[in-house]
C-alpha cells in the first residue's frame, strides 16, 4: 500500500483534493474571522445582539392578541400581512420578569430555520440600538457560568468598544420544539388547576 502511494505523481488527484479541502477550510476560517453584522438591542439594561441575516423587520409594539393558557414568555400573536406571528418576551424567556412596555419597546421579526422549516417569530425588546460589525476574532466563547441566561442561548460574547455584547444563538432561544413543549406543559398545568 505504501508502494502505491509513493509511485503516485506529485500533482495527482489526491493532492488536488487535499488542496481544495485546505482552500475551502481556509476560506471558511477567513469568513469566520471576518466581520459579521449584528442587530443590537437593549433588554433589561443589558446589550444583546442577533445576526442581521436572521432579522426580517422591526415593527412598533402593538396590536398584540393574547392567547390564553400560554407560558408567560409568549406574549401573544400579531397579524403580519396576513400571517400569524407569535411574539416572545425575551426577558421572560430568559427566566426574568415580563418586560414593561415603554416608548421605545418594539418587536423584532426574526426568521428561524429548523431543518427544512422556516418560521417567523417576533421578539419583544426594550429598544433597538444599531447594526454593528464584529470580527470573528473579537468574539469570545460563551461563559460556562455566571450569565443570567442559559449558556446554550449564548452564541458568543462580542467585544465592542471595551464592553461585551451577548450574541444570542437565536435557533436555541426560539426553538419551536422547546416552545411547543413548554406551551403544552403550561396547558396541562392549567387544566389540572
From TrEMBL:
Q: Where is the CheW-like domain?
A: 35-179
Q: Which Gene3D superfamilies match?
A: CheA-289, Domain 4, SH3 Domains
Q: Highest taxon of the source?
A: Bacteria
Gene Ontology terms: cellular component: cytosol
List, in alphabetical order, the GO biological process terms annotated in this UniProt record. chemotaxis; signal transduction
Q: PANTHER family, alphabetically?
A: CHEMOTAXIS SENSOR HISTIDINE KINASE-RELATED, CHEMOTAXIS SIGNAL TRANSDUCTION SYSTEM ADAPTOR PROTEIN CHEW
Q: What is this protein called?
A: CheW protein
Amino acid at each position: 500500500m505504501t508502494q502505491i502511494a509513493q509511485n503516485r505523481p506529485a500533482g495527482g488527484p489526491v493532492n488536488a483534493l487535499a488542496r481544495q479541502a485546505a482552500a475551502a477550510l481556509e476560506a471558511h476560517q477567513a469568513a469566520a474571522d471576518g466581520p459579521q453584522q449584528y442587530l443590537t438591542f437593549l433588554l433589561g439594561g443589558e446589550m444583546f445582539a442577533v445576526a442581521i441575516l436572521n432579522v426580517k423587520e422591526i415593527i412598533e409594539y402593538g396590536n398584540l392578541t393574547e392567547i390564553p393558557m400560554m407560558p408567560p414568555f409568549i406574549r401573544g400573536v400579531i397579524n403580519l400581512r396576513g400571517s400569524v406571528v407569535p411574539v416572545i418576551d425575551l426577558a421572560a424567556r430568559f427566566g426574568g420578569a415580563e418586560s414593561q412596555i415603554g416608548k421605545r419597546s418594539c418587536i423584532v421579526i426574526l426568521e428561524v430555520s429548523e431543518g427544512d422549516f422556516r418560521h417567523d417569530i417576533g421578539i419583544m425588546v426594550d429598544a433597538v440600538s444599531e447594526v454593528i460589525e464584529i470580527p470573528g476574532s473579537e468574539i469570545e466563547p460563551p461563559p460556562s457560568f455566571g450569565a443570567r441566561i442559559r449558556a446554550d442561548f449564548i452564541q458568543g460574547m462580542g467585544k465592542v468598544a471595551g464592553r461585551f455584547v451577548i450574541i444570542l444563538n437565536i435557533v436555541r432561544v426560539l426553538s419551536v420544539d422547546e416552545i411547543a413543549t413548554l406551551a403544552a406543559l403550561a396547558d396541562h398545568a392549567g387544566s389540572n388547576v
